[in-house]
Amino acid sequence: MPTVYGISASPFVRKVRVVLAEKRVAYELEPIVPLNVPPEYRRISPLGKVPAFRDGERTLADSSVICAYLERTHPEPPLYPSDPYAHARALWFEEYGDTALAETLTGAIFVQRIVAPRFLPSSTTSRASSEAATSSPARGSRSATSPSPPTS
Q1: What CATH architecture is 3-73?
Q2: Whole-prediction pTM value?
Q3: Mean pLDDT of 103-128
């Protein structure tokens, strides 16, 4: 049975779990907190990040790579468009969600408001997270980091 390594709090782990659910693939979730990971885990995920994935003897790291693998190994139902241009646009939005949006939401908001107060001693105030929340691309502002969707 395939195994997803990571914690459900991670948006990247959740992305892989959604793909597995949509494709109705049974799997196991092995909790790995991406702080001070054991050396064995680095054999699966060399950067020590979550998620990682094991399917038999095959191992993969990175949520987008795992989703691409699942799309190829479990083609039904298809989660990406078949049209080449529409497929490329979907990948672009996925990349935007994994980078610019995730940096704002995960680093500035989730870590500062949830993780730091509970797990990190002498954490900083939530001023940085408040500033990030008000200028977040997710809130619709058009800053240098917010997307201008590709056009045809």
Answers
A1: 3-Layer(aba) Sandwich (3.40)
A2: 0.72
A3: 66
